[in-house]
Amino acid sequence: MPATLTKEIIEKTKKDLSYPSQLFINGKYDNSITGKTFDNISPINGKLINKVVFSQKEDIDKAVNVARKTFESGIWSRAAPSHRKKVILKFAELLKKNSLELAVLDTLDMGKTINDTYTSDVPGSIKNVRWYGELIDKVYDDIAPTPYSSLALITKEPIGVVVAIVPWNYPLMMAAWKVGPALVTGNSLILKPAEQSPLTAIRMAELLAESGLPEGVFNVLPGDGTTGKALSLHNDVDCVAFTGSGEVGKKILEYSGQSNMKKVQLECGGKSPNVIFADCENLDTIAKVSATAIFGNQGEVCSAGSRLIVEEKIKDEFLDKIVNESKNMMPGDPWDPKSFMGAIVDKTQLDKIDGYVQQGKKEGARIATGGKIMLKNTGGYYYEPTVFDNVKNNMKIAQEEIFGPVLSSITFKSTDEALKIANDTNYGLAAAVWTKDISKAHLMAKGLKAGTVFVNNYDESDLTVPAGGFKQSGIGRDNSYHALDTYLQIKSTWIKLEDK
Fold this sequence. Notes:
Structural class: alpha/beta
Strand order of the largest sheet: 14-17-18-13-12-20-21
Largest sheet: 7 strands, mixed
Number of helices: 16
Number of strands: 24
Distance between the termini: 66 Å
Low-confidence stretches: none
């Protein structure tokens, strides 16, 4: 694992790399029973990477059947927590050993910069897996405070067959967020990666097998939304953990009701407010953090600070600082470790972003900077950092998740108005407040309807802190001890004691 990335190291890794393409069932890579595949295109240059297996109903039935039989066998579900811990920690070590390969695969697939994948995404994934491995032998069951003549045991059991459906914006990391807690609690797992970014998920299967995970416990089914739908409707799946759009999240809830009422955990994006009060100190630093909060990862972040809500008296000054910061965050070659932004994931998403920008102009918002597709000569999909001024909160660009590097600036005059604007959205994933007034900070944090409220920072996090949303941003939590709730079910055992 090289300490410093150079173009020479990156090019050598790319040259020596093989691109995984098959599904993974019962400990083996294979093709679809139907022989179907789909084209995997790199957004960096619009060129074909490889053809990936397109999992069909027959493959899904086989994978679920294998996962069920493996779960019921008890080879993993009834294994000692200390054994599961050993396997998962070995997996974390193998992720570390193969860090550069995994980073290259994610960059190639999704278009984000190699600096992001190598220095942030892969280490974050390793940390997540290791944290849950270390946690599992410290999870205790409970005994209820019953009458003397009774004993009530409250025990936590693995839920069974889990399907994890993950998005394309953080391919390895979002998979790790599900894989770590789902496996370490004893479940069998089927991972369905986004069709835009299947490579690291497929490679992950081989590393888990090498870690000593029994055959059939972990399976990977590449495919599109039809694959995810079939898995979500399957009557022998016990839980679906999903990260992605609200539109698809709502469908998964429907599929649960139409099938076996399987447990559903959803993280469905946001339109997060970043509230800047005039009493802030060091506006230069705040502007840099705020720009990173929307332009980092090409704006393809669920918790991105996409609504900049600024007190009127400092709006012009602060917006100028944001615009200046954006000039240092232009998209560049994703393979260059110095690039801040890379490519948008595919042409569909690029057109969607540009469509919102055109809509914002039609609605009367003013472009302060950006608003154009860039680097067309590469054949890839790139969009420049874009800042809108004079935005009203009822405009589409202020209400709908764009999932791109587009910032909407809205002004306010009072604390009450700031809170009203911030909460005036269907989403509630994250929010931020910048102020040196501690009472104002606490009152805003109490009033904001969001799963996470950042005060005088944006998007700082730790695995000990749960991540998830209010309202249409989802149900349940990733990260922290609370993530285990998705993958465990609670059993109460009441024992009547005979006093002889």
